[in-house]
Amino acid sequence: MAADMRLPRVRKTLSVSESASHRRDLVVPGDIITSDTGFMRGHGTYVDDDKLTASVAGEVQRVDKLICVRPLKTRFNGEVGDVVVGRITEVQQKRWKVETNSRLDSVLLLSSVNLPGGELRRRSAEDELTMREYLQEGDLISAEVQSVFSDGALSLHTRSLKYGKLGQGVLVQLSPSLVKRQKTHFHNLPCGASVILGNNGFVWLYPTPGQQEEEAGGFYTSLEPVSLADREVISRLRNCLLALAAHKVLLFDTSLLYCYESSLQHQVKDILKPEVMEEIVMLTQQKLLEQEG
Amino acid sequence: MAGLELLSDQGYRLDGRKATELRKVQARMGVFAQADGSAYLEQGNTRALAVVYGPHEMRGSRSRTLHDRAAINCQYSMATFSTAERKRRPHGDRKSTEMSLHLKQTFEAAIMTQLYPRSQIDIYVKILQSDGGNYSVCVNAATLAVIDAGIPMRDYVCACSVGFVDETPLADLCYAEESVSSLSVALLPRGGQIALLQMDARLHQDHLEALMEAAMTACKGVSKVLDEVVRQHLQEAAVLNVCP
């Protein structure tokens, strides 16, 4: 078997252009943003001696009188309506705890899931006892953020047929800031696979389901073998996602699809090679620019 | 003092530095993709790797949960190959437990933990090569990692060790110089607040002020270097993030 080996190389240093190197809106912790007391203190700032000071390294954003500093990399800050992909970590009374790359584990209440057998059903004591039959530790789910608690924890719901337990597929964990906010985060790509781009940076790739399963309440998972062709498409998409993320390209259906198309001339495993990655991402960016204007 | 001349008549130290000169500091942020924040820092021949996870849900014992702020969990370790003689240190070594505690105290003073109630922030630091000033190098590396993770801090924390030889304070001690009476300071440079002050040896009271003065200056020197590293990293990342 031929193994691919490469020697260590000097890291490419980005040439920071003159205009970029003097950006005034980049601050580091402890930098005084303004000593004017007329401004309001937003996220990433604190007041020290009547001076508004940054507490994280990032970009200053000013909306009217509100000043925030947005760090370049953080955990997921959920908002109501966000689509998330998460993993069940704990089954408690009347609730599941879900890991969603957030600051605290999110909560999925038993009353905010659709149980099999119709919409209008009372949650009985038996339902509480059989919670583990629906979702158990380690299961992956897709859900929507219903509300945000005062301590920052998220409350999720799966009250729609598109949300629920995830079956066979591949999970890719990326930075939440790379996922573009869109009207829909569920996409059936024409290349033969589907993708859920969670706002929390978790991306779920799965074979496009044949027909909608009825009345399973989102807890049915197909255990049919997935064909080799489908698996190849999914692996290719996964590697494309990693390539896009490595070059910090915003992720949405079009960018992923263009990247997939650009990668077709390479083998799936070759996409992860740095030079191939660069080439594919360049092509993708070109296509995106063409499409824009 | 056993034979070794730590400060020559011309005012040079063993490695050719002046008394107040720091060792060369080189650092890089964001060395791991998997962690929330990470940094690598070299200060002379001492090298450290720091990794930050969190803030995340309390793992392990729930009883440590704090309802008004985040709990900080620090772990310090030394690589087997970090010292002149190989030494396996299974976790639980007394010196490293103490060091972990000091790191925890230092970062509790700097991180704005009250913003993340009921969560936990993990800071893991590993010394890859040890040549004196392990505590200071760990603090400096961990500061960069915490900034990389986007966790709010009041200010940088910069640490430096200072020794006292022949009535002269020496900044940033290397291993050979660590035998003298020395102290380590962790400082929040902008406000000049001390996050941690540690002194194991004996020193005459009259000298303390001079030593503290030298330590503060050295910490401010370190903070300048760290500042440069963070700004450079920020600009590179901002260039890559083409879209808003």
From TrEMBL, chain A:
The gene is exosc2. Coiled coil: none annotated. Residues 75-147 form the RRP4 S1 domain. GO terms for biological process: CUT catabolic process; exonucleolytic trimming to generate mature 3'-end of 5.8S rRNA from tricistronic rRNA transcript (SSU-rRNA, 5.8S rRNA, LSU-rRNA); nuclear polyadenylation-dependent rRNA catabolic process; poly(A)-dependent snoRNA 3'-end processing; TRAMP-dependent tRNA surveillance pathway; U4 snRNA 3'-end processing. Residues 26-63 form the Exosome complex component N-terminal domain. Component of the RNA exosome core complex (Exo-9), composed of EXOSC1, EXOSC2, EXOSC3, EXOSC4, EXOSC5, EXOSC6, EXOSC7, EXOSC8 and EXOSC9; within the complex interacts with EXOSC4 and EXOSC7. The catalytically inactive RNA exosome core complex (Exo-9) associates with the catalytic subunit EXOSC10/RRP6. Exo-9 may associate with DIS3 to form the nucleolar exosome complex, or DIS3L to form the cytoplasmic exosome complex. Exo-9 is formed by a hexameric base ring consisting of the heterodimers EXOSC4-EXOSC9, EXOSC5-EXOSC8 and EXOSC6-EXOSC7, and a cap ring consisting of EXOSC1, EXOSC2 and EXOSC3. PANTHER family: EXOSOME COMPLEX COMPONENT RRP4, PNAS-3 RELATED. This is Exosome complex component RRP4. GO terms for cellular component: cytoplasmic exosome (RNase complex); nuclear exosome (RNase complex); nucleolus. Signal peptide: none annotated. Residues 169-208 form the K Homology domain. The keyword RNA-binding applies. Pfam families: ECR1_N, KH_6, S1_RRP4. GO terms for molecular function: RNA binding. It comes from Salarias fasciatus. Belongs to the RRP4 family. It is found in: Cytoplasm; Nucleus, Nucleolus.
UniProtKB/TrEMBL annotation, chain B:
GO terms for molecular function: RNA binding. GO terms for biological process: nuclear mRNA surveillance; poly(A)-dependent snoRNA 3'-end processing; rRNA catabolic process; rRNA processing; U4 snRNA 3'-end processing. Keywords: Acetylation, Cytoplasm, Exosome, Nucleus, RNA-binding, rRNA processing. Its main location: cytoplasm. Residues 21-152, 155-217 form the Exoribonuclease phosphorolytic domain. Gene3D superfamilies: GHMP Kinase, N-terminal domain (3.30.230.70). Component of the RNA exosome core complex (Exo-9), composed of EXOSC1, EXOSC2, EXOSC3, EXOSC4, EXOSC5, EXOSC6, EXOSC7, EXOSC8 and EXOSC9; within the complex interacts with EXOSC2, EXOSC7 and EXOSC9. The catalytically inactive RNA exosome core complex (Exo-9) associates with the catalytic subunit EXOSC10/RRP6. Exo-9 may associate with DIS3 to form the nucleolar exosome complex, or DIS3L to form the cytoplasmic exosome complex. Belongs to the RNase PH family. This is Exosome complex component RRP41. It comes from Salarias fasciatus. The gene is exosc4.
